[in-house]
Amino acid sequence: MKKIAVLMGGTSNEREVSIASGENVAKALASLGKYDVIPIVLDKENLSGLPKDTDAVYIALHGGWGENGGVQNALNALRIPYTGPGVLASQIAMDKIKTKLVLEMNNVPTAAWGLSSRGDEAPPLPFPVVVKAPRDGSSVGISKVTCAKDWPSALENTFSVMEENAPAALVEEFIHGREFTVAVVDGEAWPAIEIVTASGWYGYEEKYVSNETRYEFLADGGKEALKLEEKLKKIAVDAYKAVKCRGVTRVDFMVSPLGRCYVLELNTSPGFTSHSLVPKSGMRTGLSFAEVCDKILSLAATDQS
Question: Does the structural domain 113-173 have CATH classification 3.20.20.140?
């Protein structure tokens, strides 16, 4: 693989985050001196700007067509290898409702959940709950709701970022506890990271803007921390396999005070911004940022591979 296209931008609500990820990846791969790197900012859901002699594609798109199997299907048709999982896994992981069903079918622990239609007067679960757009990431349209008076506005906020005529929002039990993430690369779990925020809520500002959010490695703790890390890693790999992922996928967790681990979601095109967690985890293993990108690129494949 010599000529590498880095796809970024796109038409989803995560366009700006995607551009930040893509620019970082393109710069990192170019710094290795062994690739001809072509950054491509997509404004439409097609690959008309992709050079015909592209050897492989690094997908730095987040959300929408870039993560729901659309671009993966287009690249399969062109027989151009690409990073991350294939069409089916991408379709499942991008849809949080489908993800929940697959995790439950494979005995992977996840938070209790239900669905709400626009205008529902109450959630399907007791407060507190978290209401989410089933097909958006980067905490777009997500709200924690603790009481009935805040429910209508939270639900409307979620529907405002969803596709027109979308039938339902995802409502999850709010898990009081600690938040973690585990990167799984080629079936191997990388070091687990705990996300610590001043407010106790990891939303858009905490992910991409705030410099107060802390990222701590469980491996720096004692014996109990290491036991928890091994538990998280095993469940992360189980989730990765259940959704039939390949390449890189990030698995997000909540852990209750009793030590119960709940998978929140899988991200098949994780961020590579300055605040992103997969590169932090990879660098913890001894790789540089550029080497993390190179490792992920080395796993590029098509569904026909």
Answer: no
Q: Does domain 3-84 have CATH number 3.40.50.20?
A: yes
202 has pLDDT over 70: no
Q: By three-state DSSP, how is residue 254 classified?
A: strand
pLDDT in tens, 115-127: 999 999 999 999 9
Tell me, what DSSP letter sits at residue 150?
A: G
Domains of the chain, residue spans: 3-84, 93-109+175-286, 113-173
Q: pTM score > 0.85 for this model? A: yes
Of 85, 87, 63, which is closest to residue 11 (Cα–Cα)? 63
pLDDT tens digits along 30-78: 999 999 999 999 999 999 999 989 999 999 999 889 999 999 999 999 9
Residue 110's DSSP bridge partners are 263
| Domain 93-109+175-286 -> CATH class | alpha beta
The set of catalytic residues is: 14, 138, 276
Among residues 284, 231, 255, 219, the alpha carbon closest in space to that of 111 is found at 255
Chain position carrying tokens 């802390």 = 214
